Amino acid sequence: MEGPSSRVQATRDRPLWPAGRRESGGDAESDRDIKTHFRVCRFIMETGVKLGMRSVPVTTACVLYHRFFERVSLHAYEPYLVAMSCVYLAGKVEEQHIRTRDILNVSHRYFNSGSAPLECDKEFWDLRDSVVQCELLILRQLNFHVSFEHPHKYLLHYLLSVKSLVNRHAWSRTPIAETSWALLRDCYHGAMCIRHTPQHIAIATLHLALNSYGVELPVGEKEWWQVLCVDVTKADIDAVISDLLQLYDMEAKCI
């Protein structure tokens, strides 16, 4: 019987995505692999937006993708197929089910701008079957652990707490909240989203947003971030920010 992995590898020869998008060879931690992961996560996010997915299902899809390739070689499976299956699975996990047909059509348009929807021919059904089989492979690789805690709820709480400490005129003049959410979203382009705890990511993105606009908070016996998250250290915040800045450097190389 043909297993999920053989079905997934077989789709490498199908023309949904251009060959130039795939990177291969080299060390798993090489710039080439990191660039591939960055591009694929950008694909997940843009696909999620076009499918009308909420932010949490999209970030769950990114975490599923990073967790999967944390366990397997990037060169063993087609990353964009894995990404489509992660979108499909994340919709189920976060109770925003997305039809496989919609995922395939949006993905097809992503790589073939202006093209017509895919025909419901044998190739379409084979690809659909590969997405479903890849979903099973992901579940097995992750031991069915597909529910994750994200930084979103922590960032919302921290923003509300910090807002009460800042002069309301200064807060209204600077897009602290919008910048924090944008920085948080960007964290999911790389594996840093699974290397750091959700609370530390939330604190670090808010810390970077405040510093970017020169917003100062009242000085007390403890730093504001120590009050909001007792187990975070300045080293933890710096580590998250350093990883995020490296992602932005990677983005410049991916253009």
Automatic annotation (TrEMBL):
GO terms for biological process: regulation of transcription by RNA polymerase II. Coiled coil: none annotated. Pfam families: Cyclin_N (PF00134). One of its GO terms (molecular function) is cyclin-dependent protein serine/threonine kinase regulator activity. It comes from the Eukaryota. Residues 1-30 are annotated as: Disordered. Residues 10-30 have a biased composition (Basic and acidic residues). May be an activating cyclin for the cyclin-associated kinase CDK10. Belongs to the cyclin family. Cyclin-like FAM58 subfamily. This is Cyclin-Q.
